C-alpha cells in the first residue's frame, strides 16, 4: 500500500469517529439544604458564623430590655446572597441615645476620672460597634453622620487618653477600685482594646473624611447649626460680642411656644437675640417679644447669700446701672448668665438660661472719689422649675463645649483675616487673661463658701 493510500485511510477513520452523536447531559443543580445529607454553601457559612458569634451573644438582651443605645431590627424578607451567610440582625443606632451616652461618659471622665454608672452601657456599645465593623458579610450599619452627631470620635479619643495618661492611678479609672491598685480593671482594659480596634476600623473605612470631621462640623455650625442667621462684625469692640443678627420675624417661634426651658444654651448673646429671648446683644435688661423681661448677667460678679439667693454686683458708669429694674422689684424675670461672669453659677462657656428669678432688692451708689457707680441686685430663684441649679450647672455638656471650641477658632480666624495678626494676638491674649482671672476668682470663692456654708 502506497503512502498516499495509507494517509487517505487514516483521514477516513478519523472523520468517522467525529461523526459519532454526543449526549448533552445537563448538570444537576445544587440544592441549598439544611439537612445532614445535602448542605449548601450558605448553610455551611451560617454554621461557621454562628460558632464565631455565639460566645458573645449572651451580652445582649434581645427582648428589648437592654440599655445599650441600639436595637436589632428584624431581617427583611428579601435578603441578598451575602446576608444569608449570617444570622446577625442589623443594628439600628439611636443618635440621641448615643450622644447622651457619649456626653455622660466624657463628663464623668473629666470631673470624676471614672467611667461612672454608665460603664455597662459603654462596654455594650463598644463591643457591638466593633463586631458591626468586623462583620465581613455586610456593610457596617454605623454611618459617618451618626458618628459625627454623637461625637463618638471624641469619646474614643478621651477613653484612650485617660488610659494612656501616666499620672492617673488605676483606681481613678473605675468606680470602686482602690487608688493603690497596680493594674487596670479588666472591664476597662477590654473597653480600651475595643476602642483601639474601633478607631482603626473607622480610620480605615472613612480615611481622610474621619480626620476632617471637625472642619465639617464647623461648616454645619455656620450653615444650619448654632450660628445660623448670625454674622461676624469686626467693627464691634472687644467688650461686647462681635456678632450680629437680622431679626426679620416679629414673633419668635421659641418664645411664642414658651419653650425656653432652664438650661437652654447658646454660643453668644447674639444667638439668644436671634431666638427672641432678649431684644439686644448688649448687656442690659430687655423685654422679649411677649413682654417677659430678661436680665443678662454677662460680666460683674455674683455671691451666694444663702441657698437659691444671690447678690449680683456690677461697677461702671451711670448707664450700666440698669435703672429700669427698679420697676421690676418683686417681679419674676428671666436670667441669662455668661461665661465671663464671676460666679459659681456661670457656665464654662457661652450663654445659658438659668430660669426665673425674683428681684428681691435693687440699689446703686456712686463713689464720690472715683465717680464709679456700683449696682447691687438681690436675686432669688423661683422654686419648682423643670431643672434644679445643680442640674443646670452641668451645662454646657462636652458636645456643646466641642461647638464652643470650634466657635472660638472660627472667631479667631475671622479676626486674623479681617484685622491682621497683631489684633488676633491681642484678642487671644485677652481671652487667656480673662480665663485665668475667672478661674482664680472661682477657686477663692469656693474656698470661702466652704467655710461660710458648712454642710
Compile the SSE list and pairings:
Layout lengths: L2 H16 L22 H13 L16 E4 L16 E4 L1 H17 L7 H15 L10 H6 L2 H13 L21 H21 L1 H4 L1 H11 L6 E3 L10 E3 L7 H4 L8 E2 L2 H7 L10 E2 L5 E5 L3 E6 L2 E8 L15 E7 L12 E17 L4 E10 L7 H4 L5 H22 L1 H32 L3
In short:
The protein is α+β, with helices and mostly antiparallel strands. The protein is 41% helix and 16% strand.
Task: Looking at this protein, list some descriptive labels.
alpha+beta; 41% helix; 455 residues; elongated; eight-stranded mixed sheet; single chain; two-stranded antiparallel sheet
How is the main sheet built? 8 strands, mixed
Number of strands: 12
Question: Any idea what the radius of gyration is?
Answer: 34 Å
Q: What is the arithmetic mean of pLDDT? A: 77
Helix and strand pattern: HHEEHHHHHHHEEHEHEEEEEEEHHH
* Unreliable runs: 18-67, 72-87, 167-182, 250-257
Per DSSP, the total helix count is 14
Structural class estimated from helices and strands: alpha+beta
- State the shape: elongated
Measured distance between first and last alpha carbons: 129 Å
Q: What percent of the residues sit in helical stretches (DSSP H or I)?
A: 40-55%
Percentage of β-strand residues: 15-25%
Amino acid at each position: 500500500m502506497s503512502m498516499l493510500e495509507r494517509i487517505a485511510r487514516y483521514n477516513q477513520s478519523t472523520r468517522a469517529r467525529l461523526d459519532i452523536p454526543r449526549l448533552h447531559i445537563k448538570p444537576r443543580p445544587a440544592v441549598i439544604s439544611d439537612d445532614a445529607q445535602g448542605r449548601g454553601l450558605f448553610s455551611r457559612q451560617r454554621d461557621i458564623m454562628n460558632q464565631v458569634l455565639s460566645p458573645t451573644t449572651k451580652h445582649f438582651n434581645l427582648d428589648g430590655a437592654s440599655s445599650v443605645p441600639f436595637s436589632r431590627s428584624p431581617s427583611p424578607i428579601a435578603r441578598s446572597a451575602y446576608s444569608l451567610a449570617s444570622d446577625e440582625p442589623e443594628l439600628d443606632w439611636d443618635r440621641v441615645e448615643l450622644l447622651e451616652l457619649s456626653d455622660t461618659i466624657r463628663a464623668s471622665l473629666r470631673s470624676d476620672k471614672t467611667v461612672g454608672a454608665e460603664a455597662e452601657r459603654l462596654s455594650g456599645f463598644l463591643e457591638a460597634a466593633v463586631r458591626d465593623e468586623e462583620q465581613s458579610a455586610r456593610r457596617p450599619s454605623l454611618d459617618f453622620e451618626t458618628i459625627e452627631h454623637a461625637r463618638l470620635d471624641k469619646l474614643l479619643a478621651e477613653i484612650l487618653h485617660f488610659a494612656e495618661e501616666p499620672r492617673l492611678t488605676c483606681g481613678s479609672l473605675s468606680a470602686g477600685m482602690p487608688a493603690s491598685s497596680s493594674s487596670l480593671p479588666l472591664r476597662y482594659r477590654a473597653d480600651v482594646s475595643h476602642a483601639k480596634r474601633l478607631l482603626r476600623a473607622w480610620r480605615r473605612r472613612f480615611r481622610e473624611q474621619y480626620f476632617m470631621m471637625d472642619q465639617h462640623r464647623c461648616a454645619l455650625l455656620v450653615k444650619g447649626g448654632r450660628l445660623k442667621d448670625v454674622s461676624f462684625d469686626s467693627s464691634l469692640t472687644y467688650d461686647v460680642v462681635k456678632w450680629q443678627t437680622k431679626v426679620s420675624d416679629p414673633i419668635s417661634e421659641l418664645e411664642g411656644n414658651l419653650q425656653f426651658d432652664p438650661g437652654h444654651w447658646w454660643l453668644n448673646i447674639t444667638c439668644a437675640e436671634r431666638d427672641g429671648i432678649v431684644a439686644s446683644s448688649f448687656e442690659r435688661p430687655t423685654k422679649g417679644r411677649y413682654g417677659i423681661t430678661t436680665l443678662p448677667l454677662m460680666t460683674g460678679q455674683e455671691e451666694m447669700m444663702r441657698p437659691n439667693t444671690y447678690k449680683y454686683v456690677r461697677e461702671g458708669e451711670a448707664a450700666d446701672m440698669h435703672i429700669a429694674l427698679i420697676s421690676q422689684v418683686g417681679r419674676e424675670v428671666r436670667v441669662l448668665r455668661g461665661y465671663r461672669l464671676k460666679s459659681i453659677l456661670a457656665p464654662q462657656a457661652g450663654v445659658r438660661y438659668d430660669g426665673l428669678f425674683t428681684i428681691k432688692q435693687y440699689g446703686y451708689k456712686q463713689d464720690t472719689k472715683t465717680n464709679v457707680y456700683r449696682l447691687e441686685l438681690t436675686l432669688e430663684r423661683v422654686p419648682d422649675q423643670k431643672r434644679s441649679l445643680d442640674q443646670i450647672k452641668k451645662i454646657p455638656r462636652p458636645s456643646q463645649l466641642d461647638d464652643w471650641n470650634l466657635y472660638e477658632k472660627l472667631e479667631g480666624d475671622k479676626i486674623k483675616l479681617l484685622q491682621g495678626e497683631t489684633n488676633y494676638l491681642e484678642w487671644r491674649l485677652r481671652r487667656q487673661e480673662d480665663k485665668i482671672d475667672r478661674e482664680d476668682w472661682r477657686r477663692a470663692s469656693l474656698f470661702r463658701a466652704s467655710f461660710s456654708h458648712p454642710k
